[in-house]
Amino acid sequence: MIRQFTQSEFLFILASARWTLLLTVMSMLLGGLLGFLVALARTSRLAPLRALAAGWIGVIQGVPVLMLLFLSYYGLALAGFDLPPLIAATVSMALYASGFLGEIWRGSIQAVPWQQWEASSALAFSRPQQYRYVILPQAMRIAIPPTVGFLVQLVKNTSIVSIIGVVELARAGNLVNNATFQPFKVFGTVAAIYFVICWPISLLARRLEGRLHARRAG
Amino acid sequence: MPVVQVEGVHKRFGAVEVLKGIDLAVEGGEVVAIIGRSGSGKSTLLRCINGLEQIQSGRIEVSGHSIDPSGKGLRELRKDVGIVFQSYNLFPHLRVGENIMLAPRIVLGVSKAEARSRAEETLAEVGLAERFDAWPDNLSGGQQQRVAIARSLAMRPKVMLFDEVTSALDPELTGEVLATMERLARHGMTMLLVTHEMGFARRVATTTVFMHQGKVWEMGPSERIFGAPETPELRQFLGGGLK
């Protein structure tokens, strides 16, 4: 039986966007936390920590998100941890985010002029005090535009978790299309919803970037 | 007892030896100018005195704290030694007043009220009392440099180091910074300054050190160093520098 693409199908797709949003928020928070530690380790004075963080970034960036997803879903299941799909999805997206955010923030920290380290150490700041009061506040400004830019990628890339059966936006579209065979309507709707989520974030990124440059120039 | 004592200090950058056994003693209240060609090691010496550069051998003692090649006890020493750089290096994300209050607050642990009164006091000392709430970016180079001096002074250092602090400034702005330094000297601050301002060194410094090829080549009372240089190298340097 072929169903029509009606309001109820549309609402089903729209409602499933909440999982896309939840997944994005959770993986941004967890990945951000881990990515922050990665960035700190990457700029540490201890060579083993730096190497560890560089290795982490290299592996995460060098492996498809899909493999992270399969590893945390099927892999961990084999190892005896039977994770619900949503948890496995969150874990893998958070790992993915940690690698990229770690690298973005590493660059932001290193973009703060080295004289700022020198001036603060000459004033007898400890290393944590330098980070807390001098380096990170400046790095944060530098980091905002690329971080927001990455967030847009993250929203769209959550569509990959449909593969392990999480019914988020993309998967919901797929289900509805299987029942209605109206791919243009269905996936057009799905694409429009992604756009409505991502477009304001992109705008925000561009505005923040503009403001940053204005400050620099002024 | 000298406030700054430098004994047999050697410093290498890779294979290049920049300081080849420096001995220097600075008494309290003395103003010591360090002059010499670029590459003579004068800035490096200054930076070694508060541990921004690590020394390979020798010993540096500043008001009872010593630096040895291990670099231990650096933070304690830095509380007593202020340094002002050529490029000001104010914290651009903080207002002028906050720039000055930060180190006393978090390093010395003084109260907010005390930090504020120190900031107001030192800003007044450098003639910028009314710029407390300004952003560093909105100040001229000369004003930024004076804020940097105030920021160091708020730590109540026993010694102030000045590393070519007027070299990045337009000629019309160097005057205000030099006047600030001269007033500090008059108030009895112990100062070491690396400078290309020969007139200022001659007038304000009690002692002038001429560095050449990583060594203290000639030193003595400024009047004598500038008026009757003994070594041909210093004579040539002054002759070239004063043209």
From TrEMBL, chain A:
Localization (cell): Cell inner membrane; Cell membrane
**Matching SUPFAM superfamilies, A to Z?**
MetI-like (SSF161098)
Main localisation: membrane
Query: Which keywords does the record carry?
Result: Cell membrane, Membrane, Transmembrane, Transmembrane helix, Transport
Presence of keyword Membrane:
yes
CDD domains referenced in this protein's UniProt entry, alphabetically: TM_PBP2
> The ABC transmembrane type-1 domain covers which part of the protein?
17-205
One of the record's GO cellular component terms: ATP-binding cassette (ABC) transporter complex
Q: Matching Pfam families, A to Z?
A: BPD_transp_1
Q: How does it sit in the membrane?
A: Multi-pass membrane protein
Name any Gene Ontology BP term.
amino acid transport
Q: Which NCBIfam families match?
A: HEQRo_perm_3TM (TIGR01726)
Family, according to the entry, reads as follows:
Belongs to the binding-protein-dependent transport system permease family. HisMQ subfamily.
The molecule here is called: Amino acid ABC transporter permease
> Which species is listed as the source?
Roseicella frigidaeris
TrEMBL record, chain B:
Q: Which family does it belong to?
A: Belongs to the ABC transporter superfamily.
Q: What is this protein called?
A: Amino acid ABC transporter ATP-binding protein
- Provide a GO CC annotation, any one: plasma membrane
Asked whether the keyword Lyase is assigned, the reply is no
- Principal localisation: membrane
Q: Which residues form the ABC transporter domain?
A: 4-238
Record-linked Pfam families: ABC_tran
Q: Which PROSITE patterns does the record associate with it?
A: ABC_TRANSPORTER_1, ABC_TRANSPORTER_2
Q: Which residues form a coiled coil?
A: none
The highest taxon in the source lineage is Bacteria
Q: Does the keyword Secreted apply?
A: no
| Record keywords, A-Z | Amino-acid transport, ATP-binding, Cell membrane, Membrane, Nucleotide-binding, Transport
Membrane topology of the entry: Peripheral membrane protein
What terms describe the molecular function in GO for this protein?
A: ABC-type amino acid transporter activity; ATP binding; ATP hydrolysis activity
Query: What is the annotated localization of this protein?
Result: Cell membrane
Supply the source organism for this entry. Answer: Roseicella frigidaeris
